[in-house]
Amino acid sequence: MSDINIVRDGTVTSPIGFSAGGIYAGIKTQGEGKLDIGLLYSDRPCDVAGTFTRNAVVSPSVTVTKSLVEGGGTIRGVIANSGCANCAVGEYGFKDAQEMAAIAAAKLGVQPDNVAVASTGVIGVELPMALIRDHVPQIILKEDGGDEFARAILTTDTHTKHIAVSFKIGGSTITIGGVSKGAGMIHPNMATMLAFLTTDAEIETMFMRQALRDVVNLTFNQIDIDGDQSTNDTVLLMANGAAGNAVISGGDEASETFREALLIVAQHLAKEIARDGEGARTLIEATVEGAESDADARKAARSIASSLLVKTAVYGRDPNWGRILMALGKSEIALEESKIRVFINDIQIVSEGKAIAYNVQSVVTALSQKDVRLRVSLEMGEGTGTAWGCDLTEEYVIFNSAYTT
Amino acid sequence: MSDINIVRDGTVTSPIGFSAGGIYAGIKTQGEGKLDIGLLYSDRPCDVAGTFTRNAVVSPSVTVTKSLVEGGGTIRGVIANSGCANCAVGEYGFKDAQEMAAIAAAKLGVQPDNVAVASTGVIGVELPMALIRDHVPQIILKEDGGDEFARAILTTDTHTKHIAVSFKIGGSTITIGGVSKGAGMIHPNMATMLAFLTTDAEIETMFMRQALRDVVNLTFNQIDIDGDQSTNDTVLLMANGAAGNAVISGGDEASETFREALLIVAQHLAKEIARDGEGARTLIEATVEGAESDADARKAARSIASSLLVKTAVYGRDPNWGRILMALGKSEIALEESKIRVFINDIQIVSEGKAIAYNVQSVVTALSQKDVRLRVSLEMGEGTGTAWGCDLTEEYVIFNSAYTT
User: Fold this and answer.
1) Which of A387, B38, B290, B312 is least crowded, fewest Cβ atoms below 10 Å from its Cβ?
2) Structural domain boundaries enclosing A26
3) Is A269 helix (H, G, I), strand (E, B) or coil?
4) What ipTM describes this predicted complex?
């Protein structure tokens, strides 16, 4: 398999042909360096794949983009706003999402159905269309505009999240870029996970969709901040073919390299979201090995990474393996208690389902790292899976309760 | 239907023929008035029904009691300890649970397989059998010992939880008593919900089992403190027939009255558990009406009552209806956004899926009550369901993280 390299200071505009920009329009409260509308552009048509929230209460911004993606056409860009979710606002939500696409399309000189829309922010408030009409035409698209776009989609995130990787297929260098915003909750409403992935590869559409689904299942679907699911979650993958490679269509080494590179990008963005959960101090990586299936392992890993008692134990630097066993047991996967082994940052603390002697101070020190790895071995089969979460701190509660409408 | 009366100062020993007592043996840390072993006795054999944790990691105390109940025999008593869960301790857990039953049986002058066992407390520590051997013989059984038993099973609960009700069937007065302990987490491990229900009614076993299952589904299975599930959850219903009534066997008015009375007892105990969640200040009652089915309504109500964002919003006295819609939507039941109505303590704040004008101060005041009722109407059908939870406060986080093993 070809080497995959991390692009230095890579962003969503690292692949050939992409540019982006952002502006502050006044949709969210003003603050140092804040931006609230981002525009992403490809100088040629992109094939597109996407995954969306399964919440039955859904933003029309999602509905509009989902129908674009499912329609199978190509797109030329994305307009995303932060500060307003465009959700639970009745029929205006659709009109506004469509108009937002049209405003961006006019700016880019393309058709409205060539522009995807995404929104994140407060629920139940209409999009301030006058601000969007006024400010989108002023956005300046730049080849190094990926960082501006990343800033424009932030809500309660404490930092931008982006990455790019590159690899060779035949004589062509292919780049995949990505940007995401956090699942921290937006004050005073729930947040949204948004991720936009770009590539200059030429890819067969069905393979691209399958690869995105597979990768999302291993990454964005394996992170948890607080068990709640936004009305606006959106992951898009856009491929514009500018690298001029032989079409990637699955079933060969080039396809495997592409999938691997996409996984690296998505995993980085997903882990950064988990790490930046509201009030979080620690990234929790829960891995389950030896399950009957990968699906079982992923489910059990999610149960551990999302357990409030595990999250508070990690915050308290408490090697509380009883809570890990409890979270494992409630996941309803096949297991035998007497076979369970548990490791914290590779220090074994449970064997045959019971505590073993270990150096408590070593484990407390392990739990004080920025990344804490909880690993469970089941000895039931070959299934493995990983999930990511963060510790639960008083700051989460304060952050999400301190507001009165 | 016959009148159902609340028995003044009613406890688990209010029904005829039951007595109980408790003692401090040293299983949990000493403290003012603390007890850690409770013994419940019936002067004649009881039919018994039970429901148990579904966690795959399970305490042998549960396994032993479950096999008693499923074996279909009668029991004469229950021994319960707090301070040690008797869980994840390997083969000793079974031996210890069986010996604990035998010690209680010797004290009561009955057979070991006539005594049910329950444990709650720290995981991964063996039961201190020497303390149990020494102290159980010293327990003094009293007809008014229900309160002592209630104290003996507490862990991090802030108060005892018990109730009794009575009603007439023909010329017989029937009493149902109940006691529970909370789903607050035990320091440093997860807690357990224990509930013991007693009655002097004569009941046909199959009806008794069905009635318990139905009632548990509407009460104990509809409460949530933090989404985690203990390894030791146990609900037992014991009926000794001392009231001398015509056998209750389902399908008539007497059976309906019994079921209704059992529901009152279980609902009281379940709500008290939710109200007494660790760090909680407010009981949250979430009701969903107009769902396609009762099962849908119960599922959606659970999703609302257990959402961290709803729990923090209630704590913050924040009429944040967007979070209620989000929690409703993620429950995956059938709904149409444009039909949704939301009420907080009967004040309507959402109509047709959108916010309506309301007096914010009235709603903030409603959210400041000891009980907060969130009601959602879906207009999809006739299904209704209720769930209970509590607000999430900084104290929960501090309580569950402040310990280092």
Assistant:
1) B290
2) 5-275
3) helix
4) 0.81
